[in-house]
User: Fold this.
Amino acid sequence: VQLQAYGGGLVQAGGSLRLSCAASGGTFSIFGIDWYRQAPGKQREWVAGISSGGSTAYADSVKGRFTISRGNAKNTVNLQMNSLKPEDTAVYYCMTSGYWGQGTLVTSPA
Assistant:
């Protein structure tokens, strides 16, 4: 399984951004997918997850602002990020079944 996260960029605090994770080499829909992030100088932390059945869960720090969903395109998962804060600045990664994709950088200056 190969994963690729994309959609990162620079957006002012309060703005929105949508990340996507595309997978190849496996049947994405039968696995749960998680988003993680790693801010400069900090450990990687879990952000959100979606199960194979569509159940979702979020870290307290993003609850109510981020939404994880399966994309219309096959083998994609999206992370809609609203009301971004400077503390959301990090490299974001998607992961499934122990496979990690290359991250995408999100920068949200004050």
Notes: The CA atoms of residues 47 and 60 lie 9 Å apart. The mean pLDDT is 92. The chain is about 0% helix and 50% strand. The first strand starts at residue 2 and ends at 6.
